[in-house]
Write a structure and sequence with these properties.
Layout (H helix, E strand, L loop, with lengths): L7 H12 L5 H16 L1 E10 L2 E9 H5 L13 E3 L5 H8 L3 E3 L16 H6 L6 E7 L5 E11 L5 E2 L3 H38 L5 H22 L3 H16 L10 H4 L7 H8 L1 H7 L7 H12 L43 H16 L10 H10 L7 H9 L1 H10 L3 H15 L1
Antiparallel strand pairs: 1-2, 1-6, 2-3, 4-5, 5-6, 6-7
Helix pairs in contact: 1-2, 1-6, 2-6, 7-8, 7-13, 7-15, 7-16, 8-12, 11-12, 12-13, 13-14
């Protein structure tokens, strides 16, 4: 981060343009927080989204703490929630729909309703000083979240209070960010509706499942791209597209007969062949060469069951054929479609393959109980070089804490209900 604040007018203009290109809401939230810190030259920040009468913690960034991490590693996620009331800084800003500016967190007047807890500072050997909290409010007046930045930095790296000018800057920025978020939430809403159609047909394709697979895929890609030294702009653009595409990896199952899709037993060879066609049906929904998102979505839908060693499906098939699995473009030794192997398989398909199998193994299904995490990790390692791209498997294990955080952020409904009931029982 530069030691001197740049001209905010140039930055905000460029930020407006950059934010408008991001389509996934979560990736956009993380970028909004980054740019808010950048435009105000702030050491740290957090961003919350509103869910009912609570604010849900989404992302945190802290330049000082991030420098202590190994290269490429991120600060932990959190599922913390706070009420929209006046006891916390973000809650106060949300409830009253005002900007809250504090010069020194340790010198808040006792007559203020909000209090500061130094526990985070003590645990992380860090010090919170200046704070600026700004609500994110849509043009129609709906509160969708709060952004907080901490510790304005001066030219020599010293911590300064935020100023009235900073309030004006973050106000303009928050307006642009909120407009971009509205568009992203609209895109996500459309994707989730498509997923709900699949969920009506296949109970395994739940909202939490597709959110987890998408989250895993985005983070695996980000680590893979970091390891490869790809530019940050390219990483963000592809991560954005891949995350949305991964949410729709199995949407083609809407075209499969219930007799097969909902069968509670193992498929016969004939039924398995029919089931394989869901990859082609899914790809048909996204074939549009004018859209990069459609291209990646088609690749993911079609290729997430290909295997690194060439034993997967559907291989070289004509997705527009009436029976695509029986109408290969190139025949293999067995007379069926020539199967893809290695880097012939598009990157998105190789990544979602790992993400999808991991989630299936650690989750309960009507035909199985969830596997123990250790057993799942052993299984994935054992399939490196056969079913999975070894480089993707390595990236998966390098970010394992992040994978587990995403898994806990999107619990299946049954597990979530048990957790709530358990908490209620303890409270009685």
């Amino acid at each position: 981060m530069p030691s001197k604040k740049p001209d905010y007018r140039d930055l905000v203009f460029q930020i407006d343009s950059d934010l408008s290109k991001i389509q996934d809401a979560d990736i956009l939230l993380e970028r909004i927080l980054l740019e808010a810190r950048r435009v105000l030259n702030a050491e740290a920040g957090t961003i919350y989204v509103r869910e009912g009468d609570q604010l849900v913690f989404k992302y945190t960034q802290n330049v000082t703490l991030e420098k202590r991490l190994p290269p490429g590693q991120k600060l932990p996620m959190s599922n913390a929630r706070i009420p929209i009331d006046e006891s916390r800084f973000a809650g106060y800003a949300a409830k009253n729909r005002v900007v809250l500016r504090i010069d020194d967190a340790y010198a808040i007047p006792p007559d203020k309703p909000y209090k500061f807890s130094p526990s985070f500072d003590q645990q992380n050997n860090w010090r919170t000083r200046s704070i600026l909290a700004h609500p994110l409010i849509t043009s129609s007046g709906n509160l969708i979240g709060v952004i907080q930045v901490f510790n304005a930095l001066g030219e020599n790296g010293e911590v300064l209070p935020f100023t009235a000018r900073d309030e004006k800057i973050v106000g303009h920025f928050a307006s642009s960010a909120t407009n971009a978020l509205e568009r992203a939430y609209m895109t996500r809403s459309i994707i989730l509706r498509m997923n709900r159609m699949a969920e009506m047909r296949d109970p395994k394709e739940t909202g939490p499942h597709v959110n987890r697979v998408a989250g895993y895929a985005a983070e695996i890609y980000d680590r893979w791209a970091f390891n490869r030294g790809l530019p940050e702009s390219e990483r963000e653009r592809t991560k954005d597209m891949l995350k949305m595409a991964a949410m729709l990896h199995d949407v083609g199952k809407v075209a499969i007969s219930d007799l097969i899709l909902k069968k509670p037993a193992r498929f016969t060879p004939e039924e398995y062949k029919v089931m394989q066609a869901h990859t082609c049906f899914g790809a048909k929904l996204f074939v549009d060469p004018s859209s990069e998102l459609d291209r990646i979505s088609a690749e993911v839908a079609l290729r997430h069951h290909e295997n690194w060693d060439g034993t997967g499906y559907p291989g070289m098939v004509d997705i527009w054929a009436e029976d695509p699995i029986s109408a290969p473009l190139e025949c293999g030794e067995d007379g069926g479609a020539r199967r893809l192997r290695g880097e012939e398989i598009p990157l998105g398909g190789r990544i979602v393959a790992v993400a999808d199998v991991y989630d299936a193994l650690v989750s309960k299904r009507v035909y199985k109980e969830p596997w123990d995490s250790g057993k799942v990790y052993d299984e994935i390692r054992s399939m490196s070089g056969t079913k999975f791209d070894p480089e993707i498997v390595s990236a998966f294990f390098e970010i394992l804490p992040r994978i587990e955080e995403i898994r806990s952020r999107y619990p299946d409904l049954e597990a979530e209900e048990k957790a709530v009931h358990g908490a209620e029982a303890k409270a009685c």
